[in-house]
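Hi Y.,

Following your request, here is the sequence exactly as I used it, all 144 residues.
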Amino acid sequence: MRTFGKEVGKAKSPPSLFKNIKEKLQSVFSIVRKKLVPKLVNQISQEDTAFEFSMKLPGLNKKDVRIEIEGNTMIIGANKIKAEESRYKYGVRRKLIRNSVYRVIEIPLDADPDKICAEMKNGTLKVKIAKKENIKFKRILKVA
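Below is the corresponding structure, written out as tokens. Let me know if you'd prefer a different format.
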């Protein structure tokens, strides 16, 4: 329909308008997230006698890292809080920096959860989990 030479009734519907806004916001937040949140490098390797897991934790020390074993799950958590305070003539400025990491890793079934050792060196956490010894059970059954 045309009124005074202009099309009427061709406005965008609200759902498509909100969809466009949502898409633009998601693209902005994904760009910000990529720049502000560093991706942690995880490596898992398998040797003849053990599994080795390494993870880069820049800025953290071994006292900041906690490793828990629950069943066949290894939970790695790290938390560091740094507080800074600057006093000036007309006031005080306080700054709180918090670094936190949480990872859950499933331990393979042929790994021995009682033989785990961890080492933190130069911002890299290395966890070594020994494999279970191959014990073959042999059983002879008598047929009745």
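Helices lie at 14-36.

Thanks again,
Q.
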